[in-house]
Amino acid sequence: MKELFPNIPQIRYEGKDSKNPLSFKYYDAHRVILGKTMQEHLPFAMAWWHNLCAAGTDMFGRDTADKSFGAEKGTMEHAKAKVDAGFEFMQKLGIDYFCFHDVDLVPEADDIKETNRRLDQITDYMLEKMAATGIKCLWGTANLFSNPRYMNGAGSTNSVDVYCFAAAQIKKALDLTVKLGGKGYVFWGGREGYETLLNTDMKFEQENIAALMKMAVDYGRSIGFTGDFYIEPKPKEPMKHQYDFDAATAIGFLRQYGLDKDFKMNIEANHATLAGHTFQHELRVSAINGMLGSIDANQGDLLLGWDTDEFPANVYETTLCMYEVLKAGGLTGGFNFDAKNRRPSYTAEDMAYAYILGMDTFALGLIKAAEILEDGRIDAFVRERYASFESHLGQQIRRGEATLEQLAQIADEMGAPALPASGRQEYLQSIMGEIMFR
Ligand code: XUL
Ligand code: CO
């Protein structure tokens, strides 16, 4: 088979002193950290849409990159060439997983029966490649936001016919996810939201979204899907307000509609910051609710108010991310690079540099997070901070055995309480800095 990335060699770990840009400085797949290899800690995935489909078009200009891979775009030959390119790329970078939307794989036809036939054909070919390489599917999803039919949402649409079409796409995407052995199935509600409440029945829309998710769970389980369903929260863009605003909102929604046993969160870094949260916050909210499933690994630009989907470059952020992931005992999903090259970085080599950057940034974050845990000072400080609750009274409160009258009585006898112990933020940040830059 013709090599599609002749300028990208097999990328190997060469260590931090290497000046070879086409090598890993920190990602050493077989290095063991806290009892697991880096490869086990970091199940990386390639996002089909950014890496193989998006070519730099933005609101102001057309493609800058050539992602034809030697075939005519919009044809099944091109769909097949993308499979060849994707598997060659993943093998060269040492990426074990991929994620896809239905319409990333094949050109969509007017008739869904024809689209589905094309999807069957391309996934047969993908299965062959998967068997030959050992590369696996992390998660699948249906694109329920690009086609004009979804202008008012899919589960939240005002059209029962569009709702029906969305159900058909979800059914097929679930079939394909099961066929490809995917570990998860994602709902990202890109257009599940509103532009103005003047035309929106919010309760009606949310009930319909929940009903569609319930049907998806029932169908998925009936065809043998044992993995997790994920909600990927995002507060806005493309809609002004999206119902899955952040992890706390999505978890509340899942509990309200009895979907919480089948769903977890797929947390995307850039979506967290758009919601006015840190990435770490969204991971913590998910983890403490038993819902940390998977991660869309990218970063935003805090000076911009939209989803720039940049490759992770901020080691401080990935360290805090890996600190949360390690404390949660790992992910059931993986780390999907929902990230794209900047528009002027349009060459094939730039695709490799981007993945090397992302993988090294997470590998270094893992190394540093493990060092923070092994160092123990930060965790010990947090435990000590709540030490007053170890008293008899504190234990009564924790067990739910205290009453408001009892506490009021104690307060009356106490006079004014002493100030609580210092939060020591700067001391803790110094420990972080010391570990990060040692
Ligand atoms: C959009 C986004 C999506 C989802 C999958 O912001 O993150 O690509 O990850 O639909
Ligand atoms: Co995403």
Cofactors and ligands present? D-xylulose, cobalt (II) ion
Radius of gyration: 24 Å
Report, as a whole number of angstroms, the end-to-end distance. Answer: 46 Å
Low-confidence runs of at least 5 consecutive residues: none
Task: Describe this protein's structure.
This protein has an eight-stranded parallel barrel, surrounded by four helices. A two-stranded parallel ribbon has the order 1-2. A two-stranded antiparallel ribbon has the order 3-4. The protein is built from 16 helices and 14 strands. It has about 450 residues and is of the alpha/beta class. It has two domains: about 10-375, TIM Barrel (Alpha-Beta Barrel); about 380-435, no CATH class. Strand 13, helix 11 (about 315-325) and strand 14 form a beta-alpha-beta unit. The structure holds D-xylulose and cobalt (II) ion. D-xylulose binds next to loops.
Topology:
Layout: E1 12-13, E2 23-24, E3 32-33, E4 36-37, H1 38-41, E5 44-47, H2 48-53, H3 76-93, E6 97-101, H4 102-105, H5 112-133, E7 136-141, H6 160-179, E8 184-187, E9 193-194, H7 202-222, E10 228-231, E11 241-242, H8 247-256, E12 263-268, H9 269-274, H10 279-288, E13 292-296, H11 315-327, E14 335-337, H12 348-375, H13 377-385, H14 392-398, H15 404-414, H16 425-436
Parallel strand pairs: 1-2, 5-6, 5-14, 6-7, 7-8, 8-10, 10-12, 12-13, 13-14
Antiparallel strand pairs: 3-4, 9-11
The structure holds D-xylulose (XUL) and cobalt (II) ion.
